[in-house]
Amino acid sequence: MRNERPRMRQEKPRDEFDSVLLGLSRVTKVTAGGKNLRFRAVIIAGNKAGKVGLGVAKGLDVAQAVEKAVGGERGRIHPATKTFQALRIAVNQELANLESALKQSVGLLEMEGRLAVISYHSLEDRIVKQFMQRETTDCVCPPETPTCFCGHKARIKLINKKVITPSAAEIQANPRSRSAKLRVAERIRAKRIA
């Protein structure tokens, strides 16, 4: 790892990392509200950098702070990997963009058109799964409501009831596919109320 300011996105200046690292308001949602040791380490690294007048902490500084907070390397990946992932997700607003894209996608499908979504981590997969469950349901009113008042109608049906994951052979050939989850749905006609 080079000790330089991390690039979280290409189309925005690196100052975006400054605000995320020092402010961290959006990252809170991604990393479970400060209960995560890695999250605390990023706050500490950001605050130290700001107080000492160093500007933004460099990638290696943040990685070392996270490593110190969690007690060294664990498993196959460096402890700071999820921290940088959370920062990237926050800076790029990836989860909000995914929700927006999913909502738009169903409207763009023709009847019997298929929507296939591959997610690569649990935050994405949860959003995709909940979206597909909601869109396959005729009523999204709270269960305790005696009659439906939402007027929601199913717009898709699931093609695969269970999530599709890569086989052992595929993971062997492409290790990056190990976390991929594929969900497929098909556009249907909304049922009319009789």
Task: Give a description of the structure.
The protein has 194 residues and is mainly alpha-helical. It is built from eight helices and three strands; from the N terminus they run H-H-H-H-H-H-E-H-E-H-E. It has two domains: 15-92; 94-187, Rossmann fold (3-Layer(aba) Sandwich), CATH 3.40.50.150. A three-stranded antiparallel beta sheet has the order 1-3-2, covered by helices on one side. It has helices at 15-23, 27-30, 37-51, 59-70, 81-92, 94-108, 122-135, 168-173; strands at 114-119, 156-158, 181-187.
Concise account of the structure shown:
Helix content is 45%, strand content 8%. The protein has 194 residues and is mainly α.
Order of strands across the biggest sheet? 1-3-2
Task: Return the CATH topology of the largest domain.
Answer: Rossmann fold
Strand content: 5-15%
Output mean pLDDT. Answer: 75
Structural class: mainly alpha
Overall tally of structural domains: 2
Shape category? elongated
- Write down the CATH class of the largest domain: Alpha Beta
Specify the helix fraction band: 40-55%
